[in-house]
User: Fold these one by one.
Assistant:
Number 1:
Amino acid sequence: MNGQILIVDDTLTELEGLCDCLNAANFQILVAEDGESAIEIAKDARPDLILLDAFMPEMDGFETCRQLKANHTIAEIPVIFMTALTETIDKVKGFNLGAVDYVTKPFQQQEVLARVQIHLGVQQLTRQLREQMAREQTARREVETERNRTNNILESITDAFFALDQNWRFTDLNSKIEPLLQRTRTELLGKNIWDEFPEAVGSEFYQHYFRVRAEQTAVEFEAFYAPLDAWFAVHAYPFQDGISAYFQDITDRKRGQQELQRQYQRSQLFSDVTLKIRQSLNLDEVLQTAVTEVQKVLQADRVLIYRLWADGSGSGVAEAVLPDWTPILGNRFPEEVFPADYREQYRQGRVAKIADVTDEQENVADCLVEFVQQFQVKAKLVVPILIKAELWGLLITHQCAEVRRWTEFEIELLQQLSDQIGIALHQAQLLEQETRQRQELALSNAELQQFAYIASHDLQEPLRMITSYLQLLERRYKDQLDESANDFINYAVDGATRMKTLINDLLTYSRVETRGKTFEQVNCNESLEQAIANLKLAIGETQATVISDPLPEIAADRTQMIQLFQNLISNALKFRSAEPPLIYLSAQSHSEQWLFRVQDNGIGIEPQYVDRIFVIFQRLHNRAEYPGTGIGLAICKKIVERHGGKIWVESCPGKGSTFCFTVPDQSQME
């Protein structure tokens, strides 16, 4: 079937011949007798063409055409008017309403058929054209969508990206490549990469890209591109029509790595040189090591340490110089080459770097140029050596063979080394001062101990004589003297007795260090038993109880350990409360030490006095309440310290005290 035709006419009987003609041409015929039914049939059947009578009752052909064209679902159906009129105005009216043609009654059937076939052909071509245009539009939209998707993918890539075809022309780039290459996407698309970046020909980039294409293999590499002063990390991949490359600007990372490497090298050099400088605390050795090591590190022709003296003058005190150059050591610098204002500048941290002493732009004083040229100096670097913010001297580096541009690395390294030299010098000075003070103190202590021993020994005889004669006086003249005289004699005898006790205690105190015995393995249980035996009378008088856990065997002075236990127990007996004294001793191993405890139930000690009681001659009570010399606990402290330990007290007033002391545990230390 060739198509479907709707014929609209109120006198269809007149059109039988036309219908037969169209049927014969294999068209399907639909008919309508008025405009309204024609519109309904057109909506339902969607005919390929409408033959419309121009003049019909009620709704004429023109109105019917207008309504057909107003309905977008059927507006494209071609309409051919049928009319007996030949007025041009009617035809124009029909064309304006959307008709495509006119046929005049009475019909020439072949003409009508020809016109129908032509317009149906045009309609079909129009439909095909529209479909083709729709397909093309759809294709364009798909292409645009794909392009947008591709661009979105490229832009979503965190790296910069470009693609090259087989002729090395840019085919794709994302926006991230623009700041790296410093060119826009528009400028590069379609251009040859080697024409646009000729400096890259022969570079690592060039070699790797050709390898990707030749071997059809992916590569990744890092390379520096000098024209852009930048480092790039590149991943390049082959594809059918060329290669693609993904870029990252790693300049900051590379520079950071280089800086870390420089810092590491500087740190290594610094630590190596510092170690050598500070291995010795001898002042002369420190200075000579410093100049030798700095000369090696900086590959300088000469390194000199210039010392400033208190009178304002100065001279070289240490030097490392290559054989070809004249030594400066021993030469005094003229005052004019190092004026007073320079001293203050160097004290504040000034660094003098001179690449060429003869260069007028360096502003080097003529007298200094003349002086250094005596020693073939062409370039110099000077940093101050400070000790506690005071200018001690200068660390001077000379280049004699040629001028030299000093780098920041070299300047920073020399400043750090000068700081270490200053620290080493300060430590050497402190050691020298400490050694001198220690020697003076040792001499003073020896003299003092000798004096104490001699004084206490020499005082024994006069005291014995005084005591003996006073006792003799008391026995012979007791009945002849009044009560006051007897009291005076008693006072004198008591004073002499206390003086003797004090001298004996002082003698014991001075002998802890000087007359101590060699350490041996001592059973502390035996030492405690001996101390208790020595105090048997006092323990009995006070009705005291002394108990002890098993005590260890330690390396100690046997006699001094007995003295230590005896003094601590005696102290507990003396400062007892109203209750009979209960003294408990224990020991436990702790952190390579033995911790001893001597616990009592005495009167206790106020917290503010716990350190004072170990100081010689320090008493917390008057002699009438608690007799004694105030030396006993000081002797304990001296004995414990001689054995490498510490002693302290833990106490609560009214509840007793616990004296604690430590002695190294030699078995654990081994």
Number 2:
Amino acid sequence: MTVTPVGSEFQVNTYTTSPQFRSAVAVDGDGNFAIAWQSNGQDGDGNGVYAQRYNADGTSDGDEFQVNTYTTSSQFTPAVAVGGDGNFVITWESFFQEGGSNTGIYAQRYNADGTTDGDEFQVNTYTTNSQSSTSVGVDENGDFVITWESNGQDGDNTGIYAQRFSSVNSDPTVVNPIADQTADPLNSFSFTVPDNTFDDADGDPLTLSATLENGDPLPDWLSFDAVTSTFSGFPTGTDLGTISVSVTADDGSDNPAVDTFDLTVEFPNTPTTTNNINGDGTNNTLNGTSANDLIKGRGGNDILTGRGGDDLIQGGSGADEIRGSSGNDLLTGDGGDDLLFGDKNDDILIGGGGRDTLQGGKNDDILDGGGGIDELRGGAGNDQLFGGNGRDVLIGGAGSDEFFLIPDTGEDSINDFEDGIDTFVLPVGITSDDLDITANLSGDALISFNGQRLATVENAAGLIDGTDFINV
């Protein structure tokens, strides 16, 4: 058989300062090949190991790259082997890396595209004296064997040792389950999945994704950034309740790891009830007691009054009239066109669907219109008003009130903004600098974000500036 050159000889190393030497080469079944060598001073301290991949036609596949990540002292005398699928392994000697008395054997696996498969790892477990003169072989399945010389290990000068490695993938696992989380309505929510939640024994990179436990997408208010592993969103009063969220960690195999946690949306001062009063689906008139009552109107057009205690009152479907009376109450209209009155103390009013009227009454109240075209009146006290979805009317009343301006929830009309007393609330990530504040011919201020009208503020032209805005 005659051996003939294919093309001309070519230079492999692109870095040429000081010597590059002791090269090794391996070729896969398609003719693609990889060359490794040691280079003096290139990594900043002694010798380092570098490599270059090539296509079967002899063209370089990417740039030369450094193999060793540990660079103290010298890493040298590489060996390389390529498997049947194009994956390859490079092994080398490293001075004092293992904390032993001389050199040790290290290796790095690579995928066929040249990306690392896990981190570099130590091959030898016996570390007395020196381990040197390494070589490696890979089979078509990606399993490989690394051999080396070890000084004094067998009791008489040097001996030959080897270690077999399997390329079988280790599935990712859940190491530290995610703790249950709580989100406050009308506040920006952010939670980053801890780095130590999942582990992959192979060191494979993990891609995270998130859904509800049943596989459905996350609710509209909640999003997940796979790059930063962060959940974020702005829940409102209509998002109250608990959802089970599953986070999946995938290493590209068929068996990803999944961890599920509960995310509860609730107001910090939600009443704890001890007494239940239920409607029967018709038009009911239900009155609470002096205890903390849970009153459910259910179907029908109901009249529900909490009276004493801190009450949780739910209108259900139908056009309901709900009154908290005394106590710190949480009132939800749910479906239908509802009338909600907080009356005394610090109350939370949530309209739900329909065309609702919410009136806080005395003290510091939270009003959330929910869906539909609603009218919100804070009354006395320092109130928080969020119209929700739809074109709502917001009237703060007496006190220092906060008007929530949340994109994608419709344009609200704010009728009684008092400059220097009331404020506008923006979600985290949006500042007053991001807004366009103009005026109409009637002397109203118009607040817009990215071309989207957030609010018309009556008789406030020229009064609103950056000092009138806060973030939550």
Number 3:
Amino acid sequence: MNAKHTSWSDGKYNAAGTRLKNWMEDRNLQVRNPFMLTHEATRTTHSSTTIDLVISELDKAISVRAMHITTVDHRALCIATRIRWRLTRDGALRYDKADWNQIRTEITLMKEEDSHPRSVQSQLTAIIVKHTPRAKPNARAFWNKELEIERKELMKAWRTNPLDPELTAKKKMFRKHIAEAKMESNARYLQEETHPEYFRSAKPRATKHPIPTLERSDGKIAAEHQHIAEELHSALYQGESCRHPRGLEPPKESLNTGNLDVALQNFPNGTSTGPDHIPTRMIREFRRRRERLFMATMNQAWTQGIPSSWKSSSTILIPKLNKPAYTIAKSWRPIQLQSILAKVLERAVVDRIARFDILPDNMYRGRKRFCTMDAIQKLNDIVMNNPKGHTCFTALDIEGEFNHLDLEKTCQTLSAKDNNLAGWIWNWGCNRHTGYRFNGRTSRSFATDRGTPQGSPLFPILFLISFVGLVSIPPRSDNSSRTSILTYVDDFLVATTYKDKAHGQAEYQDTIDRLAKGALDLGYRFAPSKAEHIFIKTPLSESFEPKLDGSVTKTQNTMRWLGYQITEDWKWDSHVKLWIAKANESARRLRALTERYKTGRLNAWTTWRLINGLIIPQLTYGIETWGKIGLIKEAQTTLN
């Protein structure tokens, strides 16, 4: 909001601005920079002068139209106001600019007596918010091509002759153009001052993935922010909440310190924070400086269940690739940003579940030594162990896996191993709330009592546990064919090796039908449009067409599974060439960044770190499987 007035008092500071600040603070209005003058005024000219102010609530900002403040000499100071800008939310916290010395000091001074998880979380949030600056929203929204060209010309003139007398005039003109561009940019953000949703048409311009409208199930169009959030929630979390299983009790024994230390040590630094704004670095400082309080907090969250504040999250939306229209709710992938305190505890629980050996060897992820490379190596073993036979693969994908997970059945499976652990899982999964963050705003909280949060460390292993009974297939007595099911969370692959087409097709189709029926019983569904089929080293006369839900799956020459390009001849040339092309594109963009910031912003050490983090992993992806001398030399040539 900009407040303009023409009456000023003499003196060094803006006394009228001070009175304005006091008047607004009496009415619970926030004021920023009460002494900042956009341009200076004089008593003789009475030119209009602007003070930058901030009003945090829209209804208060709209009600403040004209403010009459009585001055010392009882003259009425009338200030005509015009709303120019409103922050719908605070800017993001800049953790790289935080005062970590003060943060460490205040962590050391935290009270030892109060170890309740909710209280510790609120204390940590207050500390990090107090000592961390916020980013300015849309700080460079005013910048345009003309200003960039003028800046380059000014820098070129300064390098050529720093003592040029015309350089000062050019600097003043450049600053003037910047001020004008800022005023024009602010004016564009206001279309209707009195409309309660006036910011809706402006803020999405600064959002990476805006959602202007959504088609509702009744055929109407949802355009308001709250209506879009309601449509997203109804489409993503369909069905009724799960019932509470009987006989479950909370854990009674304490957590092992080593499990928490390993979980915290392996937790990535760049993880996005939840609504509590507590980053991973702060939790590590908390663990290092207040070990007893940290362990008491985590054990209380383990034995009594995590509090409701640890269950709240913010859901961001990422557009799915290759969708025909993004006006449908299911074209967006929701990612819940949870509290990192809860996620550290969840990682320790994952290690505890993995020790029970519930999952068979053909289910990957959710535990150590069962990663992507192991799954592809298993595929390689299936093909290589069948040199004279035929092999076919079918890739299947489940729709809506995270929001259809039945916690009741999963907890019943876990209760056979550890009843207390199953009770904690149920307490963790119920009474959760999330708000949808898009278009620069966050909606109200919605209850998500069905499924599990996508992005939670617990989701992969809980999802795999729900499918344990469907992925085990006994071998045939005549050894005419053998079918295996590999699953990497929600990515399924059915592999069949056979010598006779009739036996192979029959067993293969029975496996597909049994898997699809079992998924429906659990509340899931395989998407027929995403199913792909490929034959490995198989002539056309021995191939067949499998069906999924009555529709024939597509037979491909190449199939992508877990980032690997599988071909009919079972060679890795196409896979290596694809990732070499990706590495070349990454190198091209990195080279452009290096040339752009040759003033020292992107130094040699930073460039080498980017090469190690981006280009080399692309060139060596899956080298354990395709590591042949010729292909390695080709990748090495690209790297050089």
Number 4:
Amino acid sequence: MVLGVSCVTSRAEESVPPVRSKASRPAGLANERPRNLLPLSAAPVFVRPPVKVRVSNFTGRGVEIIWMRPDGADQHCGMVPPTAPGGAPALLDTWGGRLWLFKSEGRVLKVFAAGNEAVQDVQIEPLPAVPREDPAGEAAAATRVEPGAMFPPPPAPIIIIPPSPPEIPEEMADAPENAHEFLRVHNEERARLGLPPLRWSRKLARHAQTWANHLASTGTFEHRDRGLERCGENLFRGSEGYSPADAARRWLEERSLYRGGPVAREDLRTVGHYTQMVWQETTHVGFGFARGRKGLVVVANYLPGGNREGKIPYEVTPRPDR
């Protein structure tokens, strides 16, 4: 059985029976411009400035570097050598907005989202060692390998990836502005939990856009009847300054309220947006957004839909915070 959620809207008469996840701004803030939020006129998703990232690798061994593409695929881009004590960091030529994973022996050490600053820094530290039982039954002491102890330091900064125009996966060629940032908000959290990234779906985006247009034109704020193979749905309504990625960030705030365990109906009003974002079986997402007399409306649809009664959103151990 698939459950749904509703949240209290900014006006009492707009409340609806419990359905799927929705969010809106608190009462009294309808005319207040949000602070520190991206305007909808921000630069297009795929046109970002070229930037340099100085990567300091303090793990004592080579670290794999992976680009998390906007379409959800992982692209291996080489290795970052260990940084010697006092040595120069490696240089990564990339573009603002790209999301990178640094991995060693199959474990994610760092998730890094490049900003738009011309020069940025990132440090990679080893994960805490897990004590193991030796043949005598005594726990082996975990020791840290000093940086550079196992590998010779590089003679000079290394250019790992040459500059190249941003790549646009075919599935996202006609994606709306801010689609990359919207996906990044989802996939950073899913990477932290060890979950595969979501991929963009044109079909879901068209489905969501139809309903976003309806909500904006009618001024209503409610979920539609189930359709499109019973996809999941998150809703958001806010003032003009919000973007679809900001809606995803609001849904992500519910993470602090989720205590783990199976999904129950009484929990969905407070954590239903978040659990849909990180639902392990969900593979694709698409959103639509429209402006109406009551502000910006964002509709996100997910397949396969999550928030199934009695099911656990994910069954993996979260990785250390970045």
